[in-house]
Design a protein that fits this description.
325 residues; Immunoglobulin-like; 2 domains; 7 helices; 13 strands; 27% helix; globular
Length: 325
């Protein structure tokens, strides 16, 4: 349809809708994980077409504007790219230049991913491993199958090795990449005595770690905040957990047992807060080798101020009348 010069198109016109209608989409959050400035919470996932008794054929998933997408016409390629993006090698590259509030389309401009080739065995293996990881993750998060976490970790390790092979990264270099990511995720770590290589002490995590999600909430809205506690010590029993928001207690709970390298997720509902920054403090008390120990960590909680609504223009008023609002 030919448009008259200087005349705006009707409000109901949609442009560049083709990517949203693609059958397969690789997606990730524009704002991802805790706001620490280290951007190590990036993760992508593949969305497949939806089957339903109400549809004659499969329909594509349509996203809201809080997700970034890459459209694909073929599922194997989508899973291959997702596997590469979720690997430790690429995650470290993403964390090296971006931060959690701006994980947008630039990622695939700066991260070079070899084009998928169905005749390349390595590409096919990465695609299949990525599919397997998606299936296991679905069992963990949709069916609450915590027993599958070790299986997921095993598949993720294999994906890391395949992606290292894809980029020509040696096994030793991959180990250093993983160590760097661990330090970025968990903060300072204590040095392990006696484990040295060429004069460099390799750090080892020896504490109870915390992760809050989300750390960005809306003004004047009560919102659930999850607290993930990870035990990197020996098996612990009768663990006292407290979470304070600006010295007001939000959570007090006892975890009967937390095994080594396992996590427990607790949650609390935030009060309605004004826009600004607040301090969250997590305190965990536990017994270790006959001594009572205590670990504390602090995080910033950001409360996004609401934007005041502007007065409706004459155009908005007319539009609302047309829509019956």
């Amino acid at each position: 349809m030919k448009m008259l010069k200087g005349v705006a198109p009707p409000f109901y016109w949609l442009f560049n809708a083709e990517p949203s209608l693609a059958p397969y989409k690789l997606v990730w959050k524009r704002i991802s994980g805790a706001i620490t400035g280290k951007a190590v919470s990036f993760a992508s996932a593949v969305l497949e077409p939806i089957e339903s008794e109400y549809f004659e054929k499969e329909k594509p998933t349509i996203l809201n504007d809080s997700l970034i997408l890459i459209p694909f016409s073929e599922g194997n390629e989508a899973y291959y790219v997702s596997g590469v993006l979720n690997s430790s090698t690429v995650l470290l590259a993403i964390a090296s230049y971006t931060y959690e509030l701006r994980q947008e389309t630039h990622i695939t401009q700066y991260i070079k991913i070899p084009k998928y080739n169905s005749n390349n065995q390595l590409h096919r293996e990465l695609s299949e491993l990525s599919k397997k990881a998606h299936g296991i993750a679905r069992g963990i998060y949709e069916e609450e199958r915590e027993d599958l976490r070790d299986d997921l970790a095993s598949v993720e390790e294999e994906i890391d090795r395949k992606v290292a092979e894809l980029y020509g990264i040696t096994e030793e270099e991959l180990k250093e990449i993983k160590k760097c990511l661990r330090i970025l995720k968990e903060g300072e770590v204590e040095e392990e005595e006696g484990e040295e290589e060429e004069g460099v002490v390799i750090p080892k995590e020896e504490k109870v770690a915390f992760r809050f999600d989300p750390l960005l909430i809306n003004e004047n809205e009560a919102q659930q905040i999850k607290v993930e506690i990870t035990n990197n010590l020996e098996n612990l029993n009768a663990i006292k957990v407290a979470v304070l928001l600006n010295e007001d207690t939000m959570l007090e709970e006892i975890i009967p047992e937390l095994k080594k390298e396992k996590s427990e997720v607790l949650s609390f509902t935030s009060p309605k807060l004004n826009g600004g920054e607040y301090e969250l403090k997590a305190i965990v008390e536990y017994e270790l080798k006959g001594r009572r120990e205590k670990t504390e960590e602090r995080r910033k909680l950001f409360v996004k101020r609401k934007v005041e609504e502007k007065e409706e223009s004459a155009f908005d008023e007319e539009l609302n009348k047309l829509l019956g609002e």
